[in-house]
Amino acid sequence: MSQRVDRAVELPGDFFLLLNPSVESEDFAAHAFVLPDERQIPHGHGEQPGDEQEEDDHAGQPIPDNTEVDVHRCDLIRFGLTSKSEMIALFLCPALCWPAISLARMIKTFLLIFNPAEAWDRIVRARRSLIFIFVIYLLPLLLATSLAAGYGLIHWGKLQGTMGFPKRFSLNEAMAFEAAYVTLSLLIVFIGAQVVKSLGETFHSRNTYLQTFTLLAYGLSPLFLLHILDAFRPISPWVSWFIGIMLSWGVLYHGVPKVMEPDPSHGFGLYLVTSIVLCLATGLTRLVTAWYLQGKLGEMGPISHLNL
To answer: How confident is the model at residue 106 (pLDDT cuts 50, 70, 90)?
Structure first.
């Protein structure tokens, strides 16, 4: 209550103080420090000191004709490389990483065998190109299994003749056989993809070559993986083919509807025809390679005559 009374007394005083010029007197002596330094206010869009043009800075001057650009040097710097030896190392990295890539392809094949539905879903979602599938998946898988099989042919050999005598292959003979095997396997995939594409059209399924190539490259991977069994002397070549084609049929059973997406009424028929065609193609290839391993074809081609 006392604060209210005191405030009521102060309000009239504040009003009269507004008329008292001594409340805040103006210091006229302060202008003595401002006036000597008084200058014209600069223009708001005037030139700044940083806008001064440097010497020999002429816009629109053409580039001399004798200008040289070291593209090789620029490329090295762009990749963080400063010497040609480091550039060579960059190109050698894929070769050094090849064993890891081959192991990853084998793991992918095992996933297709034991969990085909999920593996095919990942393949379809990835939408890999033909070059990627061929270079990163199919070719490393074939080369890795051929390398293992060739090692077995050289060190352990195969049983030949009616009496089953062991025959160890030379390096040239093993190279000839594995080169022929890889070539025939690639022909089955590339030509077979076109054949399956044509078969799909008879079942009113419009597919691209990439779809059928993807189906065969991944679908036949169990058969290609089982080529490793050819490295062991007691195992017949037909055993590895039979197990491999059976596993491939199981993988294709899940792959045909997911990759080719046929009409449900034609899906099983397309799968059955595709499986029969691949069985015949791979069976004929196995017949030729088995005859060679059993000594019924003699030397295979001019490669076996090379002295390495």
So the answer is: confident
Measure the CA–CA gap between 149 and 230, rounded to whole angstroms.
Answer: 6
**Residues present in the chain in total:** 308
What is d(CA 264, CA 113) in angstroms, rounded to the nearest whole number?
A: 23
Separation CA 214–CA 196 (nearest Å): 11
CB 155 within 8 A of CB 234: no
CA 99, 102, 103, 104 torsion-angle sign: positive
CB atoms within 10 A of CB 114: 10
The predicted-structure confidence for 234-244, as pLDDT tens digits, reads as follows 899 999 999 99
- How far is Cα 281 from Cα 187, in angstroms, rounded to an integer? 10
Evaluate whether 196 touches 274 at the Cβ level (below 8 Å): yes
Q: How far is CA 144 from CA 69, 98, 101, 243, in A?
A: 43, 9, 10, 19
Which amino acid, residue 182?
Answer: V
Task: Please say whether the beta carbons of 300 and 173 come within 8 A.
Answer: yes
DSSP 128: -
pLDDT digits (tens, 9 = 90+) for 59-99: 455 544 444 444 443 343 333 444 444 443 333 344 445 55
CB within 8 A of 209, min separation 6: which ones?
130, 193, 194, 197
Q: What does 217-244 look like in DSSP terms, one character per residue?
A: HHHTHHHHHGGGGGGSTTS-HHHHHHHH
Rounded CA-CA distance 208/197 in Å is 7
Does residue 133 contact residue 214 with C-beta atoms inside 8 Å? yes
Q: How far apart are CA 177 and CA 304, in angstroms?
A: 9
Residues 6+ apart with CB under 8 A from 249: 275, 279
> Distance between CA atoms of 97 and 206, rounded to whole angstroms?
38
Say which residues have a Cβ less than 8 Å from residue 123's Cβ, sequence separation at least 6: 214, 218, 258, 259
| Angle separating helix axes 209-219 and 171-202, nearest 10 degrees | 130
